[in-house]
Structure formats: structure tokens, C-alpha cells
Amino acid sequence: MDKFVIEGGRRLSGRVKISGAKNATLALMPLVLMAPGVFRLHNTPNIRDVWTMSRLLGEMGVHCELNGDELFLDSSNITSHEAPYEQVKKMRASINVLGPLVARYGEAKVSLPGGCAFGPRPVDLHLKGLEKLGAEITIENGYILAKTSGLRGAKIHFDISSVGATENVLSAAVLASGTTLLTNAALEPEVTAQARMLVKMGAKIYGIGTNTLEIEGVNELHAVEEENIPDRIEAATFLIAAAMTRGKVLLENVNAYHLSAVISKLEEAGCIIDVTGDTITIEMDSAPKPTDITTATYPGFPTDSQAQWLAFMMLATGTSKITDTIYHTRFHHVPELQRLGAKIEMAENTALVTGGAPLTGATVMSADLRASASLILAALVAEGRSEILRVYHLDRGYEAIEKKLNSLGASILRIKTEEF
Ligand code: UD1
Predict the structure, then answer these.
(1) What domains lie within the chain, and their CATH numbers?
(2) Which pTM was predicted?
(3) CB atoms within 10 A of CB 208
(4) Residue of 5, 66, 116, 137 marked active site
């Protein structure tokens, strides 16, 4: 696995283009299983998770090719309805193929995802929703086996607002006979992006962008060309990086509306933000004010930006509280940030960060994508040299992060290494 060697203390300035959203792409790609033909997805990020999904769909007979940011997918010849453990263990979002497969082919075999770096992550809501639509589900040898002679519309209330469960059940409901009502559906922009693509493919979905979705089943869908949304989490990471280095950076290809919670907190911390069209400029010339955050479902502060915010608050002029209500144990970055000198105390799912402690370079690592991003941010401001191991995890979700940061003035060297 590669590692990054980072020299801290450089101010970031300039312009950077944000890539298409990882999580939206991973919800859009499996939809090609629902209609035969040629699909084109624009604004697709060139990241490992997209390669993994391409390989998984490839094993099912979909021909995938990424040219620049255009992903070409030909689903004319589907030959398998199985998502094997080898792919699912690399990426939990592989489970997104379950709904499309069972809806179109009446059967699916998908490896059950295990826990992940930040705790148990059940899929009970995905399975309950599909069962309500008439799928028979059994678990055998670590696999979810789903079968149906035909899905039919149902009223489904999600006990917890879940992005993945909403995506899986929504895609299945589109081909179910009759009407389906989903309540407490997730509102995340990635879900909305998926619903919009389904509508373009011929689905009938009402209430898009709200937590109540009404779906009138249709018999078939057709292939489409679609534009992916920008990655709000990559954008938040770059905004925080600019603020931490007291820089001035313009982000291109962003949707500021999707970033309202993060922008509002950045302003509370003292950053100057300007939104013009699909760009955001951020400027910061002082230490941030201590600013508490509590993660929540959209439009609240995203759990995927919690680790980066925590790194930001290591520079604050006082103590701030960072609470994660979505994943209570998602704090693997804390011991690593402490190795750089951060003052952080944990109390259940809250981190108390006291800013201003001197940060000095160290060797750090994490097995979680966003935690790894927070380590890069900390290394950008730590005195001297840091090494970030297991860059593999960053490559899963950030397109060429070191190249983009270096173009803004950072000093990050990627070194090929066998170290694990
Ligand atoms: C998606 C995102 C992930 C983000 C998360 C929360 C993708 C590929 N990943 O993950 O980056 O951190 O949303 O915004 O889009 N839950 C259950 N049972 C279920 C499903 C979920 O109890 O069947 C719980 C989870 O443990 C968690 C909460 O619901 O506490 C929300 O999780 P969910 O929205 O489902 O996250 P993912 O879709 O897995």
C-alpha cells in the first residue's frame, strides 16, 4: 500500500475542481441492471470504489469503461445475479445491487456485508423493506438469497432514516406492481440523484427530495445518459483544508446547497465564504473559534465530515464538542491525531477538542476513508514531516487527493510501499 509523506506548514491557495460524488455514483451504477442498453454517467469520479463497482457489474455481464469523467456502461447482456464476498468485503456499497437484481430478475445472491472500521453496520432495514415488497429472503453461508415471483407495492416505514436502505428499496419498488409508499425515507442528495435517474429511465416517483416517496410501479425501464452530482464530502474536506492552512481557495463544480450545514459551521468558526454559481470561495486568516457540531441525517452536518471537522477544531482558540449521532464509535482518528499532539478527550460519542496544542509531524494511519482524510488535514498544519500510511483507503473515495492539494501549494509525496 502506498504512503504519503507530507511537509506541514504550507498555505493553500488557488482553484480546485471537485469530482463527482462517490456515494451517488455507487447508487447510480447498479441501476444499469434494471434496463438493457447503453448508459453514460457524466461527472464520475476516478476512484477505487468506482473500479470495484465496475468489476462487480462486470462479473454480472455489464461492460464498463471510464473515459475521463464519463462512465460508459452496457447492460445488454446480464449473465449473473450474484455479488460475491470478494467484492462486497472491499466495499459495502456493493449491496446496492440487491434491490435492482431482485426487482428485474426475481432473484439475487449478495454477500452479507460485515462490520466496518467504525462499528457494526446492519442491513436489516434493506431486507425488511424488500420482504414487504414480496421478496423471500434467507441467509445462507454468509449470503443474502432473495427470490420473488413478482414484487408488489407496499407501505414501508423505515425505523431509522437510512441512505442505503432507501436506495435499495426505492429501486426495487419502481418495478413492483401497484403503488409503494416509503415514509421516513432518507433525504440525502445521493438518494435524490438516484430517484431522478430512475425517473429519467421511466420510473414514476413522487415526492422526490422529501422523506415520503410514492412510487407507482412500471413494467420496464430504459437506458439513459445522466449527470452525477458533485461530491459534497470532498468539497467539505477541501474547504476545511483551506481554512486550516489560513488560505484562500476557490472550489469549482460544487453544489453549495448540499453543503449548507458545513458552510454555516465554517462561517460560525470565522471563515469568509462566497458562493457564486457552482463555485465556493473560502478565506480564513485567523485561528477558528471553537465551534461544536453534532452529526445528523441530511440536511444536518454529515457524519462523513465529522473527522475533518475534528481536525479543524485542533486549531481553535478554545474547546469544542464533536458529537456523532449516526455512528457512535466513528472516532478512530482520535488516537492518531493525539499522536500528532492534539488534545482530545472522549466521552461516549462526543469528542472534546481543546485547540491550540502544538502539532508536530508523526507517522499515522487509519482504516477508515474519512478518518484518513482528517490525518492529511492535520499533517498539512503540523510542524515538520508526517507520514500517512494505508493511503489505499483514501484512494477509495478521493480522486487524486495529493495532486489536487499539491496544485494548491501543499507538499505531499506519494511513495509506493509494501508496508501494511
Ligand atoms: C451511507 C454512506 C456513508 C454515510 C452514511 C450516513 C454510501 C455508499 N455510504 O452509508 O458514507 O456515512 O450513509 O450518511 O452511500 N442502519 C441500520 N439498519 C440498516 C441500515 C442502516 O440500523 O439496515 C443504521 C446504521 O447503522 C446507521 C444509520 O442507520 O447508524 C444510517 O446508516 P445508513 O444511512 O444506512 O448508511 P449507509 O447507507 O450504509
Answers:
(1) 2-18+230-416 (3.65.10.10), 22-227 (3.65.10.10)
(2) 0.97
(3) 17
(4) 116
